[in-house]
Amino acid sequence: MRSSGQNQKPHAVCIPLPAQGHINPMLNLAKLLHHKGFHITFVHTEFNYKRILLESSDHESINSSSSFRFETIPDGLISSDAVSTTQDLTELCVSTQKNFSAPFRSLLDRIQSTENIPAVSCIVSDGLMSFTIDAAEQLGIPHVLFYTLTAMTVLCFFQYYPQIIERRISPPKDDGYLRREFMEQTIDWIPGIGSIRLGDIPTPIWATNSDDPILNFIIDQCSSTIVNRSSAVLIHTIDALEPQALTSLSSIFNRIYTIGPLSLLAKQISPDTGIEKLRSNLWRNDSDCIEWLDFREPASVIYVNFGSTTVMTSRQFEEFAWGLANSMKNFLWIVRPDLVISDDVVPLPLRPEYLFQIKDRGKIVTWCDQVLVLEHPAIGSFLTHCGWNSIFESLSFGVPMLCWPFFGDQQTNRMCCCKKWGVGIEIEEDVKREEIERIVKEVMEGEKGKEIKRKAMEWKREIQKAVNQNGGSSYLNLDKLIEEVLLCGN
Ligand code: UDX
């Protein structure tokens, strides 16, 4: 039997899509809820939790005693034994739909029958894991869908994707020229978006047939009938960045809250429980890079990071490597072990001739604490794959960007950065070393660089307003979400 005292504590079960870019904002949200008095169960896949434990020792000690507990469910993938590489995102998404529901229900049943743990009182789930709504309905508790993406991307998912099949929109299959022509076409019928290039809509606009698994995954997840069974929708953004898209979304969803950037909000939690130190890195941080930055002049370093899922060919990799080297600027480059699709035993930037050429101007590591890096005064700009967390974190510290998107929402984020918010410069998809050299010099010392830095600083100020503990919109919205939704089942 549970004591009445324990019963009174609200208990949120937080379940992210099991990929780094979704786990990080969910973990930060969970820390904030914990800080507001919630007991937290955070659900990882077994595969990811194994990797996280390899990189950090914090989790076990906290699990044994505290009100912030980690639990795991299997991901249903056969490849789950090789813990060193990024999982295939398509397989993972399809598997969440097919295989996660039953173990998630069993986990909830187990938690509900465990003594000394408060009864689960709400579920906060990734927006792309709507199967969790069934569980909340069965338990009769509030449920929140959390989109770790921009409002613009969510709007494209809901308003554009169903049309891909209905209007038979698909790019020509093999012809590069015709594909480029297709991507240049604009449409103007998504409410709240205005005119947009097809190439700026989140992939799989690139899908050449209606059986594409990711296309169908998104269409299944992003149906307003399903989503409006959830108590509320939370979007990782701030109103000032995308007012029209949010207005348009408010006609689809019953209740929307905007909160962000979660990395900044979580950083402000007072360090009293150790929870604020929790990390969820799938790779080991190289803390040396902060010391390396300490010895660099202010705004003298270009930071290069392609996130957790981007891969590139060895040719693209070489073009980046020589472009950076030839720019003669300082750079910190994060090269995940699985970034390059290559048979080379030693990738170029780790070969002696390259290291000799860059001397101490460049530092190459496999993973870093990105938020610490971006707030470091030595960072002058960020060459990014345009993952939403990366962009939001970069804007938080007023760092201008060079944009080379890979897939998913990144094309849309690139467009927002370069065209709407004025904080980025585009890099051609077919990357060339001469272009990288030119564009790196431009962002670090050219007129365009100064202009986008000024805009980035304006957005930084806007973000600081949102995360102000006295009346900032993100704090107010967090409190509203708790009072109006999460505590409503109690
Ligand atoms: C994925 C998608 O690619 C992205 O477009 C989507 O918006 C979220 O899911 P990912 O590719 O990993 O994410 O990019 P991003 O959104 O930038 O998230 C990466 C996260 O890992 C960020 O929070 C970043 O701070 C962190 N990170 C990344 C590190 O802490 N260290 C690193 O070296 C690299």
Describe how the helices and strands are arranged.
Elements: H1 4-8, E1 11-15, H2 20-35, E2 39-45, H3 46-55, H4 58-65, E3 68-73, H5 89-99, H6 101-112, E4 122-126, H7 132-139, E5 143-147, H8 151-166, H9 176-184, E6 186-187, E7 196-197, H10 213-221, H11 224-227, E8 232-235, H12 243-249, E9 256-258, H13 262-267, H14 288-294, E10 301-305, E11 312-313, H15 314-327, E12 330-334, E13 340-341, H16 352-358, E14 362-365, H17 370-374, E15 379-384, H18 388-396, E16 401-403, H19 410-420, E17 424-426, H20 433-445, H21 447-466, H22 473-486
Parallel strand pairs: 1-2, 1-4, 2-3, 4-5, 5-8, 8-9, 10-12, 10-15, 11-13, 12-14, 15-16, 16-17
Antiparallel strand pairs: 6-7
The protein binds uridine-5'-diphosphate-xylopyranose.
Residues 19-22, 24, 148-149, 305, 307-309, 334, 367-371, 387-390, 393, 408-410 line the site of uridine-5'-diphosphate-xylopyranose.
Domain Glycosyltransferase N-terminal: 13-160
Transmembrane segments: 144-161
InterPro entries: Glyco_transf_N, UDP_glucos_trans
Overall 3D geometry? globular
How much of the sequence is in beta strands? 5-15%
Mean pLDDT: 90
Query: Would you tell me the structural class of the helices and strands?
Result: alpha/beta
Total strands: the figure is 17
Could you please describe the fold and organization of this structure?
It is a single chain. With 490 residues, this protein is an alpha/beta fold. It is built from 22 helices and 17 strands. The protein has helices at 4-8, 20-35, 46-55, 58-65, 89-99, 101-112, 132-139, 151-166, 176-184, 213-221, 224-227, 243-249, 262-267, 288-294, 314-327, 352-358, 370-374, 388-396, 410-420, 433-445, 447-466, 473-486, and strands at 11-15, 39-45, 68-73, 122-126, 143-147, 186-187, 196-197, 232-235, 256-258, 301-305, 312-313, 330-334, 340-341, 362-365, 379-384, 401-403, 424-426. Strands 3-2-1-4-5-8-9 form a seven-stranded parallel sheet, with helices on both faces. A six-stranded parallel sheet has the order 14-12-10-15-16-17, with helices on both faces. Strands 6-7 form a two-stranded antiparallel ribbon. Helix 19 (410-420) links the parallel strand 16 (401-403) and strand 17. The two termini are 18 Å apart. The model has no long low-confidence stretch (mean pLDDT 90). The structure holds uridine-5'-diphosphate-xylopyranose (UDX). The site of uridine-5'-diphosphate-xylopyranose has 25 residues, from helix 2, helix 17 and helix 18. It comes from Solanum bulbocastanum (Wild potato). The chain crosses the membrane at residues 144-161. Keywords: Glycosyltransferase, Membrane, Transferase, Transmembrane, Transmembrane helix. InterPro entries: Glyco_transf_N (IPR058980), UDP_glucos_trans (IPR002213). Residues 13-160 form the Glycosyltransferase N-terminal domain.
